[in-house]
Amino acid sequence: MFNLEVFQLQTAQEFLNVCSDILYQKEAEYSLMLGLSEISAKLNKNAGLFYIVKTDSQISGIALATSKNIIISDMTNESVLALADQLYFDKVNFPGVVGPVSVAALFAKTWAGLTENKTHIAMSQKIYKLDKVILPRPVDGQLIVANLTHQDLITQWVFEFSLESLPHEANSIDVAREFAVNKIAKGEVFIWLDGFGIPVSMDATSRPTKNGVTVNAVYTPKTYRKKGYASALVASTSQLMLNSGKKFCVLYTDLANPTSNKIYQDIGYNEIATSVNYIFT
Fold this sequence. Notes:
The protein is α+β, with helices and mostly antiparallel strands. It has two domains: 4-117, Aminopeptidase (3-Layer(aba) Sandwich), CATH 3.40.630; 130-273, 3-Layer(aba) Sandwich (Aminopeptidase). The protein has helices spanning 12-23, 31-43, 77-89, 101-115, 151-165, 173-185, 229-243, 258-266, and strands at 4-9, 49-55, 58-65, 70-72, 96-99, 119-130, 142-145, 189-193, 199-206, 212-219, 248-254, 270-280. The chain has a twelve-stranded mixed β-sheet, with helices on both faces. A hairpin with a 5-residue loop joins strand 9 (199-206) and strand 10. The mean pLDDT is 95.
């Protein structure tokens, strides 16, 4: 018989002190949890609530509950049940769960039973890792870093991206503008200009870890699709990150979109894990 205990850690730094060795063993796979925690520790501002599960005094599960989701690591079934029970006891609220497929599925089922909520899959995902860029077919144009003159355009594109790719999240033009303002100020939004200097595609970088960074918010308006712009942009952004000293880039994709999955594989992204996002209603 083993002893299961669930603990809440008080700060992002404490969480990293306790969990980083485990999480960094799969740095790319756990980049979502790691990246949010690293940023929180740097800003001395918690991204959410930090939990660990211990089995016979050894960490057997890790979780970060944010305003969007509870993000969970791989863990045993017993650890999932213990974590769900503790979160319910602590009256922690979150709209969904994201994590390894079987673990997230069990947590969602357990949480729905505890709370009498309904649950369904918002998105099945693949996690990709790139450590060397394969150049796509050449297209006219170049990558630029978005600046203040692009703020309205990026706001509109982020809003359109969110409606199309993340319909289960709370989307609004104000949320999109906040994203655009903050990310442009940090130099983390990139645009592909076509041969005439017209913006035709965007992406962004996010959640840096010690060795990696995530590429996300990849969006091309319908008018400019199927011209190779997204491939050129993501390849160029990824190479820029490698040139800056990062050893790899991470990218999450929607499993239901075979086109984007193929595009990323063609430029050097390799699947390392699958993930699923359930939401509760």
